[in-house]
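Morning!

As promised:
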Amino acid sequence: MLNLELVVLATLLGGVVAYLLSMINKRVGSAVTILVSGAVFSLLAYYGFGNSIDQTVELIPNFVMFKVTALGTFFAVLVSFVFFMVSFFNPFFAERYKYPNAFNLLYLMTLAGVVGVFYASNFITLFVFFELVVWTSMFLIPMGKGTKASITYFVFSTVGSFAMLYAIIFMAVGFGTTDIDTVLAGLTGTAALIVYGLLLVASFAKLGAYPFMVWLPKVLGNAPDPVSAVFSGGIEKMGAFIAVLAMIKISPASAMFEAVGLPVQNYIVGVIAAVTIIVGTMMAIRQDDAKKLLAYSSAANGGYILLAFTIGNSVAITGGFFHIFAHALASTAAFLAIGVVTYRTKTSKISELGGMIHHMPITYVVYLAAIISMAGIPPMGGFISKWLIFQALIQNNLVFLATAAFIGSIGSFLYVFRPLAALFLGQKLPKYKDVKEAPLLMLIPMIILTLLSVVAGVFPTLFLPMINNIMTELGFQTLMTSGFQIIGFNGTLDPALVAAVFGTGVLVVFILFMIFPKSRKVGLMDTYTGGEFIYTEELLHYSADFYAPLERLYRKEPFVNKIYDSIRIKVEELGAFVRYFFFTNKPEVTVFWIVAILLFIVWGDII
Amino acid sequence: MAVLLIAIPLLFAFVSILNKKYAFYLLALVAAFNFVFSFFLEKGMYSIGGFGPFGINLLVDQYALIGLWLLNGLFFLTVMINLKASKKLATVLIVLLAGINGLLLTNDLFNLFVFLEITGISAYLLTTENKKPVSSFNYLVQGTVGSGLYLLGLVILYSMIGTLNMSDVISRIYTIGATPTTLLLPFMLMFIGLGVEAKLLPFNSWVKGVLEKAKPLSGTLVSSVIAGTILLVFGRLLTTVMVISNADMLITIILIATIIAGEVAAFKSTRIREILLFSSIGQAGLVVYLFTHGLLMQGVLLIIANVLSKFVLFTIGASLAEAAGDEVEELRGAFKNNKLLGIGFTVAALSVTGLPLFFGFVVKLNVLLGIFGSYDLITPIIILVVSLIEGVYFIKLLMKLWYGESNVQIKNVLMTVSVLSVAVVLIVLGVYYQPMMDLVAPIKDEMIMIIQGGSF
């Protein structure tokens, strides 16, 4: 039996140990993070799937109560796995941080908080650990570039957290308890809708759904690379967890949108999810910085997850959980691959790179597999989840949402192709001719993640039991499978067969490649100009402005940023007004106000 | 016995005037004595001079004890940290100590006025160390106007009900049958009088002048120790003495305006001491709001959290500002070479913002549960929005202080040690908060017993 509170406390203690050891030697401290996160993952996976986690709490004060559920175990194992894989990168990036000791401490504290969120039994515990993750991860962000990103993150995260806090206290005062299952099951009527809305605001803020998408590219673009990977693969999944609580555990009864057979509020959430997908995809297509591109991609995939949960039947929900799983693996692998590039070349701007495949072939394969999974192409895990979601969308006649999802899928192929073609393939730049492959310790997690993605795509039924446990717990039917095949509404998917066809295709092309004569290598600067001499070869390098014709269609920025800026300016103006009016150097102002209030009282009109 | 807490400082204040050379040692001795002696007090009502029901009473209950322990302790620490400044102002500080203890202990309204004046005058004199005579003068004028109004209200009340003993006021009001309308004027005068000192909105223009260039000694004492005392006194009056239910709307407007104005003004500020002082104003508004709505325990918890956090924040903030300049832009990266101070500051700032693992979070959760418990659905929204704004400016401040290229270095071992110990207390109380809850639990029952029975 594994005592859960000991896991949380040991992780926190491990953070302190990492801090102290980092003061002696940075690499040793980072090694502690690897060991602790690895221990957390393996213990949770082993005991969690064996159903023998002990949830009693003795040491921590008794507002913290844990409950072991299949849902919590799924998320906790997945996210701790992400943390474990990313921690392999910590020793290498340690010297680039301003406060490396604090980094290791905060990394492990974030992990402890995340585990606490997923296993929380009452809402107060959930909120405590949720906020803990917010502030510990917030201090990790500025160790990269600039400090403004962490403030943006704090604002949006706190908007979500406070919406959730209002809902929690609303329920606490109404029900007298904050136990999650009791409270969510007992909500009815308008109260249910209010709580549903507030919890979804929290979920949108964490996932980066449309109105709150602003923080994702800023944070993931400016944070250090391991932190970006952890955010995209781990912390955003907390948003998905809250979405599950809101959408699946509360089912507010309200008007049905007859045309599509969904309740109105679900459809509204679906529309928001669809907008997220499209905006995320479009913004990703025009990014030049690989990390911001992946950030928008994370937001778009968050939209897919929300879309899956709004539809609400067993195929869609299984698809949603599988997408959480596949996206976590793929996005972490992609961020880690870009992390390797940044580690070796100190930049992640696509227009400044090119031809990295020659220097780091394994990283290239990892990145290729990751983006194939994110675009939803077989034989990777992302294909299975998208197949399930599309099945559900079509079955429920959700025409507009399905169109958005398909556009998102095609768009995702466009944006994943850009870094691939421009960063890894393409022309080598002379200044990077000494770049080497990633060190072994960095290669290990990337290869593991890739292999898992492939296995998830070829034999998804291996991972289905873990999701089926959740489905049974939530009261839905599990997905029907037969052998290694998945049975959906409109047909049967045989992933092994699809992978085999894919593999055969690759083999055929490879044979052809071997047979035909090879191409001739030329240098980068060997471009055609029709007789003119070139002074700025970089602009003619085909990584610059990759999708220019498409990007010109929507050159203006989305307007949401301007709204947030104007809110901030209005608050500042209110502050200036208050300072001018009330905080002057003249005591006569105070005396004036005193007299005014006394007159008001003595006049007695209102009273 | 409790009177020693007031008498000894006053006595030694006179002695220290006669003997300026040893003034500082007397100060240290008296402060230490007060802190230690406050742990040996027994609860009860102490009559001074034996003038029967007309005389001065001192009341020692859980509420007073919490205030005494906390504020005497912090006073001692503040004085010890700022040795040089304390040496110059030793007499004033001893008188201030007497005033603070008197405010917390007294059970008589006129005695309260006396100690209010004593504390006020020492505070005005204390702020002269900032070398800004106009601001000190403004503080003097506004404080005196406030005390004068309080006295006026007091006189009207006395003429109405014939007693000045705080525990007797409510029972006399019942026997006389005075209506809330007639009582409104004196109590509102007293409210406004105390409101000036407690930093409520239309009356607090002195705060900016006094605290914006405050040195570590006067700034910390005014914003942490004196503020805590005044708020505790205000709390006791609002709960056991004042009947101002008719002016509910007016008071709510004043308080909500204070909360919003304080936080919004801090959002706009770019100087570290201004940010901290506006944050104090906002929190003071929230504390008085809790007291006026009967949430006594939450109010006391918030006072404790604020006093501890502001002690840390102001000590470090004022020291940094004195060392390297007030604008936060000039202080960028100040914690690079002062990591321990930075950790203490960060802990206190996160506690004020209400993030978990810190005491401020426990307090905020209790506050929100209390307000929701009275079925008020709009005020929590206001408080949450204001908390968001507060969080944003504190995080902006923290980020700028940690990431930059400043070379400031502050070497004061006692400051580092005390700041870190308070930070540790905030963290421990954030997780194991039960002892603090047990400490404040008896307050409400004792107050009820006092009102009903006159003693306990």
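The radius of gyration of chain B is 21 Å.

Hope this helps with the figure draft.
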